[in-house]
Fold:
Amino acid sequence: MLAGKNILLIIGGGIAAYKVLELIRLLGKSGAKVVPVMTSAAEEFVTPLSVSALAGAPVRTALFNLEDEAEMGHIQLTREADLVVVAPATADLMAKMAHGLADDMASTLLIARNKPVLLAPAMNVAMWENAATKRNVDTLRADGCAFVGPDEGDMACGEVGFGRMAEPAAILAAIEGQFTEGSLNGKRILVTSGPTHEPIDPVRYIANRSSGLQGAEIARALLARGAQVVFVTGPAAAARPEGAEVIEVETAQDMAAAVEAAGALDAAVFAAAVADWRVAQASNRKLKKAAGKALPKLELVENPDILATVSQRKTGRPRLVIGFAAETDDVVANATAKRKRKGCDWILANDVGGTRPVMGGPDNQVVLISEDGAETWPWMSKKQVAEALAAKISEALA
Ligand code: C5P
Structure:
């Protein structure tokens, strides 16, 4: 994915620096060459020896080091890089960048760079929310810097809130995202999203819980890579992805018909929470309640399984069919069985029975089940899950 890419990795001085060791490992696995630079504060958290051993390259620390400069001048370091990544991006390092200070190797490289930069901020929640940090982040965004994270959660200092550095897998996905504009050019991909509503009568319906957020984020991540996206959505709260061909539906039968009508597809992602059953004879008049009147008996019939139908098509099957599985127990075993039963290529499974809310919440933790087994992804925002999935899809369709 990142084969041949040269990443200049600037490690700032924060406790999250330990997670950068894992990031270096992931970058190496995906074929990137990592050129590490550490601030002197970073050396208080992880050793240059660990960093250089994992990167397979010497660490640059001091600005005025004759030996290092003789080998490769610091300006040259940024000229040879394809991308500059700052992780953890501390409040101090971002303040220096925003103001153009250059008093050590890291800040000098950042001002001398002529390459895009991606920042993974990490700091205490009060530091992240401080007005000065906010101004600096706005300045850096206006200067064209890209950001990944920070995430919300427990911090090393014992406080809880925004400020945790994004997980290494999410940073890797964001790095890949910097190189992937156009990686899905010319690909036509369908995404189903949201719940379906199965009418009981004109005012009542049966539905599953679904905000439609994960599906919308997947559509956006695919669009960002140049895909042509057909977005078939039930009545969901989430904003519709701009740039997609949006088809609004209400029932599972409508959704199945819209999917059939979508024509030839390279891939299809079934993120919708489709109701399994519908009322056999929905009333076209409101069912009235009255004292002494028997309760209405609802006879249910099964809805078409859209994912299974598309997965098992004899002709015109998309090359890649992806389903979701929301499970409360034995997530991997159930999702593995579901993948076989439905006939799809991948299943993104999540545990919706845990204490951390997935449905309606901003974050998700998924396991990707494929023919090759199960790959557990860390907790990430739904946007980051979408970006990681889009990266996988573009690899599979390449
Ligand atoms: O069988 P279950 O509903 O758990 O499977 C979930 C997966 O199947 C999701 O990807 C969902 O979008 C898809 N599905 C479907 N049509 C149905 C039921 C589920 O496409 N009728």
